[in-house]
Amino acid sequence: MLTDLRHLLRLFAIGRCLARHDALGILQRDLPLPAAARTGLGLFQALFGRRRRNLREGERLAAAFGELGPSFIKLGQVLSVRPDLVGEALAADLGQLRDRLPPFAAATARSIVAAELGRPLDEIYASFDDTPVAAASVAQVHFAETTDGQLVAVKVLRPGVADAFARDLELFAWLAEAAERQVAGLDRLRPRDVVASLRAWVAIELDLRLEAAAASELRDNFRDDEDVIVPAIDWQRTARRAMTVQRIAGIPIEDRGAIIAAGLDPAAVADRVIRVFLKQALRDGYFHADMHHGNLFVAADGRLELVDFGIMGRLDMKTRRFMAEMLGAFLTGNWRRAAEVHFEAGYVPADRDVDAFAQACRSIGEPILGRPVDEISIGRLLAQLFQITETFGMQTQTHLLLLQKTMVTVEGVARSLDPNINFWEAARPVIEDWARDNLGPEALLRDAAGSLLRILRRLPEIAERLEKPAGDGISPAASPTARGRDPIRVLQTALLAAITGLLATLLLH
Ligand SMILES: Nc1ncnc2c1ncn2[C@@H]1O[C@H](COP(=O)(O)OP(=O)(O)O)[C@@H](O)[C@H]1O
Ligand SMILES: [Mg+2]
Predict the structure, then answer these.
(1) Pocket-forming residues, ligand 1, beta carbon under 6 Å
(2) Which of 204, 295, 339, 383 could form a disulfide with 308 if both were Cys (CB 3.0 to 4.6 A apart)?
(3) How many CB atoms lie within 10 A of CB 393?
């Protein structure tokens, strides 16, 4: 009873905040609420409402969530990867939610670190900067130098954040339960499912040892890699609420000017971004799922530096195989196959019509394939695909959504560095390497894929030969009528087919 009362009070505050940001309309329109709840929302709107029609609905909701604190910021982030639930537009706006809060006092940060590590701060660090480098809803980061002379970054959990989460998660669970039980039609939004994802994400973010473990696993996967540096964890100075990481000194990736000034080629960096993502997702099945600008830096030697390992995605072999086969089928225009792999993976119920599904695949694939290769966005293709799969009764695969969202982010970052980036050119080395590594011990595979590999190796040479006749100074791709016969495009399509076919062959074994 007392808990109910507490939840109701908190709900009141939430309703008021949503009204002030003019964000109640979304709930009224999109949720099949009972009459009483509707009246309640209308009352809030009348009492506290402001009009902010210059902003999109999603922006208004994001602003309200930002004000409502850490748990709502996370809720917004969880919903931003669930366009299947909230729609594309809303998901995109929630993805822009700024996770920034005013910093907490340095003295507090120092005492948290000392308490967590069980020693006075000056026994742990030779110096500890008072001004944080960043402050977000869950944690803030201070630079420091350890007593043994290492330059580090120390991530410190915000005081009280665990309690705030616990309180709000209890409220969310209470609401989800009530909603699913009492409001017909709301179960479509799977509120309890959303709360469960939220709980899982938060559990990782509230225990920095888990983030440290994620960083450590990724670092192991990328030891001596020529494309990326993952900073080392200082486990002796890491506990639940404080994490010490080797400091990186790279250029923020959004600073294109500084990248150029450092003598680096932004296009090469863009290629790296894509390669690094693919190595994680394809080769390791373990990927950084928050690869936005703020978490990426460029080292002096051009390698990428990653920070922030709070959100990671995992793909098992079956899923990677599905992705490779499905993309392969799409990019070679084999719509029937594209449909079949969904059924084979068990994603779409067996009683659905494969041909109708193939037709739906064609309807999203053809418009995309008709465009120049450097304009094809795999992330968007997946987004559209997941939209149609839903109508065929495909159970939402949340790990695929996370992968898709990350692909969109990665493509966005790469394109901001190089507007003409060709995703497939950037991807090729990873796929080839992966093939080589996996070929060695498997004679059988070598036979199956050897000829494809030979073609792949000769592609640059073939490309050169094809390019020459078109050397009249006019790019064939610029003329829409010539597009279909452009030899480079034909080559690229062949390349796509070869790569994806090879990939599928390998994954199948
Ligand atoms: N190892 C590091 N070296 C240098 N700067 C870092 C390091 N880790 C974090 N930072 C800085 O702190 C910011 C916030 O850290 P991050 O781990 O991304 O926290 P959040 O989860 O709050 O986004 C980063 O964007 C970066 O500027
Ligand atoms: Mg970050």
Answers:
(1) 133-134, 136, 139, 141, 153, 155, 231, 245, 247-248, 294-295, 307-308, 310
(2) 295
(3) 11
